[in-house]
Amino acid sequence: MTTTNSEPLVSILIINHNYGQFLHQAIESVAAQDYPNIECIIVDNLSTDASVDIARQIIAGDPRFRLVTLDANYGQLGAFFRTFEECNGRYVTILDADDILFPAFVSSHVQVHLALPSPVALTSSNVVETDATGGVRSGRYPHFGSPLLWDCPGLVDRRDAPRVATVSDRQFDRMSPRVSAIPATQMGWFWGPGSANMYRHSILEAVCQQRATPYLRGADAYLNPFAHALGGTALIDSPLSFYRIHGSNYFAVRETVTGLRAGRPEFDALHLALAEETVDFMLGHAARFRPILGHDRFWEVLDQLARFGSGRTVFRSKAFLDSLVRHAAVVQASFSDRELARVLVENVKPTRLATLMPRLLLASPRLGLQLRVTLQSLADPLGRRRRRRARRHGRVAFHAQPAAGHPPKPHDFGTARLLTRDPPVFVTGITFDEWLGVAGAFGRRFGDTAAGFIVYPTWSIEDPDKIAAIGRAVQEHRRRHPAHRIVFIGNTRREADMLAGEGLPALFLNKNFFVSERVFHPIAEQEPEFDAVYNARFVPEKRHALAELIRTVGYLGYVSESHDEHQDEIALMARLVRENPSHRLLNPVVDRRPVRLDPAGVNRQINRARVGLILSEVEGANYASMEYMLAGLPVVSTPSAGGREVYFDPDYCIVCDPTPEAVAAAVETLKARNIPPEHIRQRTLAKLVPERRRFLDLVAQLHHKLGGGRFDAPEWPYAHLDTFLTFGSYEPYLDSLEQASVVSRGGTRPPGVRALLTDTAIAGR
C-alpha cells in the first residue's frame, strides 16, 4: 500500500440559516471524521435563532473550524458564491446544516478521487434518509445512480493507487466494485442529494459566480450538473451520510419512493430558472469556458445544461437568444464571427433567426452581418432564386430533356434515395467521379427541372484536390441547371469547413444516423462466441492483419461477382483463415466466393462477438461502426480519416495504435469492462436523434425553397426501412419520376411524409 505523504486538504462548508436545532450534529459529524486533514467553514446566513451561539460553543478551541457570519440571508448557493474563496482545500464538500456525515465520508471520497483511472469533477455517494429526530425513513436514495451503469470496478488496482492511510485494504476492495464513472456527456440526476458530494476545487473555481445579491437556490442543483458537464462524475454506491427530511427542506417534502415525486411543486419552475441563469452565466463568461472546453464542447455543455433544466435544447429557448444578444460582445471575443454564425444557422430555427437578426445587428453589427452572410450560404443553401411563375402555379411534367453538349456518362449508378417527389428532393452520395451523385444523372435526363440534392461523401474528401474538383463540378452544374439546389453534408467538421471554404453550402452532419436501429439490435439469447468481429471487404486497405493477435475473430465480408479483382479478395480471405485457425469466415460460401448477407443476417453475426473492429486508415463514415454500437458491441478502431469516430464514446470505444499488439490489448480492455449491450445501444441512439432532426429540418427547408408544400416529420419517418441507402443504378428513381408524368406544385396540399417516401433504395457504405 502506497500512502500519500500528505493527504490533500479537504474543505467542508456548512451553510446554515435557522437550523440551530440540527447544526450541532452536523458540526460534530465533521469533527468525528477519520480523515486527518480537513478544514470546516461554518457560514451563517443571518439566522434569527441561536445558530451562531451554538456554532461558537461547539467549535471553540478547534483550529480546524471557523465561523463566517453574513449580513443577509443569501441563500445556500448565494452564500457559497460569497464564501468560496475561504476554501483552501483541493476538494470541497458543502454540508447541509441539517445533515450528518458518516465518519468515513471524507476518507472514502478522497480515496475514490485518488484511485480513479481518470480524474472527475465530483464524487457522489448514496445516503440514508432520516426524519427530524434521526429515525430512518429509507436505506438508500432511489434516484442515485443510472439504469445504464454497468457492473465493473471503478478504481485502479489498490497496489497502484495513491492511498489514504485511514482506508484499509479491505475497505478499498469492498468499495472499488461500488464505484462507477459517469461520462460528462450523460444527462439526468444520478447524484446523492446535497451533502453527499465532494467537488474538485479547480472545477468550482470555474463555475463560481460573483454575486452581490441574495441567490436563493440549492447549491447542488447548480453545481452538480455544471461540474459534471465539465468533468464527469464518479458514483460511490454506499451510504456515507444521513439526509434529513423534516418539512423545512429546500427541496424534499417526503422520503424518496420510486415512482413518486419527493420535491416541492414549485421546484420545477426554480429548476428551469436556474438552468436559464446558468446558460446566461456561461455565455457571459465565454472567455473563461471557451479555452477549457474548446469550440464544439462549449456549445454541447451549454445545450446539456439547458436540457437538464427544461428537457429542451438550448437553441429553442428564448432565454438563450436573449442572453446571446446581451452578451454578444463577450461571446464574439471568444469565437470568430464565422464560428458563431455557423452554430446559430445549424441549430436555431429559421423563424427564430429572423427575429434574432435585427437584435444582433444592433448589439453587434459585425456579427449580425456575418450571420446574414452565413445564413445565405449555409442555412439557406438554395439561394434566392424563385421558380418561374408557370412552375410555381402549374404542373410540371418530367420528360427526358438532356442538355445540349452534356452527353450521358457510362456509369449512372451510385448511392441515392428519393425523399420527396413534389418537388423531387434526393439524398445522394459522391461515388467515382460523380461528384454530385444523382444530380448529374437527373440533369442529363430532365435538364433544368427544379430539384434538390443533399450530397454526402461516401469516402473521405479531406483532400484539397477533391474539394477543388467538387467545386468545379458544382460550378459547371449550376451553369447548366440553375434551377437545381445542392447542399453538402460533411461526415467530419473538417469536410464541411473545406467545402464551405470552396464557397459551397455545407453542414457538418455525419451520415451514420441513416443506419436502422430496427435491424441492428442486441440479441439477448445470443451467447458471444468470438472475441471480436470485423465487418469489412477483403482488401489490403482494411488491414485485417492488425487483428492477428486476437484469440478468436469472426470475419464478415463478401466478394461481388462483378469485381475484377475478386480472386485477390478470395485469396486474402483464405490466407487469413489459414494462418489463424481460431479465426472464421461468417458469410456463407458459394463456389469459393463468400456471398453477401442481408442486414438482419449481418446483425445476427455481429451478435456472435464481444467487440467490433474497424482497422482501416482511410474510410468514409463507415456504417459498420454504427451497426456494431446499435447491436450493443463496443468498438476498437485505429486512427482514421472519414468520420467514423463522430458517434464514438470513450466508455465503450477505444482508438488505439495501428499495431496488432495495441488492437489485441484494446479488445481485452473492452471485454473486461463487460458493458451491457443495451447501455451501448441507448447511449448511441441518444446521439442519433438530434442529428436525424437536423437532417429532416434540412429536407423541409430544401422542399420549401423549391416551392413544395408543408413537409412535417416530427419523428424519423424512415424507421420502417431495413436499409436507408444501398448501392445501385439511378435509373429506378428517374424512371419513377418520368412515369409519374406530372407532379403537383404550388397550392395543392402535398401528401403526408410517409406517402412521399419510396421504398426503393439506392445507396451504399
Could you characterize what this model shows?
Helices cover 38% and strands 17% of the residues. The chain has 765 residues and is of the alpha/beta class. The chain has 4 domains: 8-264, Spore Coat Polysaccharide Biosynthesis Protein SpsA, Chain A (Alpha-Beta Complex), CATH 3.90.550; 272-379; 413-514 and 689-756, no CATH class; 530-675, Glycogen Phosphorylase B (Rossmann fold), CATH 3.40.50.2000. Strands 2, 3, 4, 5, 6, 7, 8, 10, 11 and 12 form a 10-stranded mixed β-sheet that branches. Strands 18-17-16-15-14-27 form a 6-stranded mixed β-sheet, sandwiched between helices. Strands 21-20-19-24-25-26 form a 6-stranded parallel β-sheet, with helices on both faces. A hairpin with a 5-residue loop joins strand 7 (122-130) and strand 8.
Quick structural summary:
This protein is of the alpha/beta class. The protein is globular and about 90 Å long. Pfam families: Glycos_transf_2 (PF00535).
How does the SSE layout of this entry go?
Layout: E1 2-3, E2 10-16, H1 20-31, E3 38-44, H2 51-59, E4 65-69, H3 75-83, E5 91-96, E6 100-101, H4 105-115, E7 122-130, E8 136-138, E9 162-163, H5 169-175, E10 179-182, E11 197-200, H6 201-207, H7 219-231, E12 233-244, H8 267-284, H9 286-310, H10 318-326, H11 328-334, H12 337-347, H13 350-363, H14 365-379, H15 389-393, E13 396-397, E14 413-421, E15 424-430, H16 438-446, E16 451-457, H17 464-480, E17 484-490, H18 493-501, E18 506-508, E19 530-535, E20 553-556, H19 566-579, E21 583-585, E22 589-590, E23 593-594, H20 599-606, E24 609-614, H21 623-630, E25 635-637, E26 653-655, H22 660-673, H23 677-705, E27 727-729, H24 731-740, E28 742-743, H25 753-756
Parallel strand pairs: 1-9, 2-3, 2-5, 3-4, 7-12, 15-16, 16-17, 17-18, 19-20, 19-24, 20-21, 24-25, 25-26
Antiparallel strand pairs: 5-11, 6-12, 7-8, 7-11, 10-12, 13-28, 14-15, 14-27, 22-23
